[in-house]
Every structure is written in structure tokens, then in C-alpha cells.
Design brief:
Blueprint lengths: L14 H15 L4 E3 L3 H9 L4 H6 L3 E3 L2 H4 L4 H7 L14 H9 L3 H4 L4 H21 L1 H30 L3 H16 L6 H19 L1
Parallel strand pairs: 1-2
């Protein structure tokens, strides 16, 4: 169900809009929530510096990057913020807004040249209908997701268990490997002296080749 709708006519996507939306989400859903945002990684810092920082922390609200957009972020960011590495999200990809944007394209021809009043009227009617349709389909949506989750568990669990036995690993190893990878990437924040020398040598060879 849609909780907030922002009209950005000229200003563009400013932080004040997402902060207002986050404040509304915290009021509606309370503790232990998760927000998926294209730039959820950097938005976490924005919230921490805002007037709702205490409210977000006290509600244990997390900000991560939605699944599709997350693959465009660097690997270090993915290990921290991608849904694939988050507990409690299951099959959720957090791309609901993309579906909403796509659905709202249908109302664009109607409001393109409408007055401000009729623009608001048709947008409101569209999303009222959207909420009504989603509510009617909610039980089917939950049922299908539940079936899909059970099918994935039933189909893949035997293969995973077989591999774990063959490789002598446990569930804890998967998370440990992620943390090891994260620590390694964080250690690369500064270039190693050997890497700098190697790049300087390659640059010198390229300059020599051009001179010839």
C-alpha cells in the first residue's frame, strides 16, 4: 500500500522528500523495518545527520540498496547493503517502486496538459485504484511467495547439504567468507606501494611504446 507520494515539479530528488517519507514510514510500521533505496548506502548517512536520526535508531530501522540497483554498486557496498546478504528479507527484492512507476505511466497521457487541480485529482484516483487492486490480490501474492519459497528450499537444500558435506563446510562459513572479503576490500582503501610501482612501470612502458 502506498504511504506517501511526492510531487517534484522543478526541484528534483532532494533529500527532504525522502526524509519526510522515512519519517512517515517509521510512524506507520514502527520497529525493525527496512527501507530499500537506490542509494540506501549513502542515504543511511543522511538519516544519521538529520532530525529523525534518533527516531530511526530507536526503531532499529535499516537502510539498504534494492536488489536490481544494488548490482551496479561496488562489491564492498554490496556486502554491506545488498538484500542478498541481509537477514529477514527472504525473496523480497525491494523494487516495488519500479512497479509503481511503471503502472503510473498509464495516467501520464491524461494529466500531461491538465490543470494542477485535475493533475492531483487523477493521480489520487490512480493510486487509490492501485491500492485497492493490490489489497484484493494480497492473499494470492502472499500464497504464491510462500509456495515459491518452499519450492526453493525443497529443490536446493539437498544439493547445498551435499556440497557442504563434500567440502566440509558449515552455514557459518558462508557468512565468515563474506566478512573476510569485506575486510580484504576495506584494506585496499589505500594503494599498496608495490601496486603503485607496478602501475608506474606499465605507464613508462606505454609511453615508450608511443615514443617508438
Amino acid at each position: 500500500m502506498i504511504q506517501t507520494l511526492v510531487e517534484m515539479r522543478r526541484s528534483g530528488e532532494l533529500a527532504k522528500y525522502t526524509l519526510a517519507t522515512t519519517n512517515k514510514v517509521l510512524d506507520v510500521y514502527g520497529v525493525n523495518g527496512v527501507t530499500g533505496y537506490d542509494i540506501g548506502c549513502s542515504y543511511q548517512k543522511t538519516v544519521n545527520s538529520s532530525s529523525i536520526s534518533t527516531k530511526a535508531r530507536s526503531n532499529h530501522h535499516r537502510f539498504i540498496v534494492n536488489s536490481f540497483h544494488g548490482h551496479a554498486h561496488n562489491r564492498q557496498c554490496q556486502l554491506w547493503f545488498h538484500p542478498l546478504y541481509q537477514h529477514g528479507l527472504g525473496l523480497e527484492d525491494l523494487e516495488t517502486c519500479e512497479h509503481i512507476f511503471s503502472g503510473s505511466n498509464a495516467v501520464s497521457p491524461v494529466i500531461r496538459h491538465a490543470s494542477y487541480f485535475h493533475w492531483l485529482q487523477f493521480i489520487n484516483l490512480h493510486f487509490q485504484q492501485w491500492d485497492s487492486d493490490r489489497y484484493l490480490e494480497l492473499s494470492k501474492f502472499l500464497y504464491n511467495n510462500y509456495k515459491q519459497a518452499l519450492a526453493i528450499i525443497d529443490d536446493l537444500s539437498p544439493a547445498v547439504e551435499e556440497l557442504k558435506l563434500a567440502l566440509k563446510i558449515s552455514d557459518g562459513d558462508f557468512e565468515h567468507w563474506n566478512m573476510e572479503e569485506l575486510e580484504f576490500l576495506e584494506s585496499l582503501a589505500e594503494e599498496q606501494e608495490g601496486d603503485i610501482e607496478a602501475m608506474t612501470y606499465v605507464d613508462a612502458l606505454q609511453s615508450l611504446a608511443k615514443a617508438d
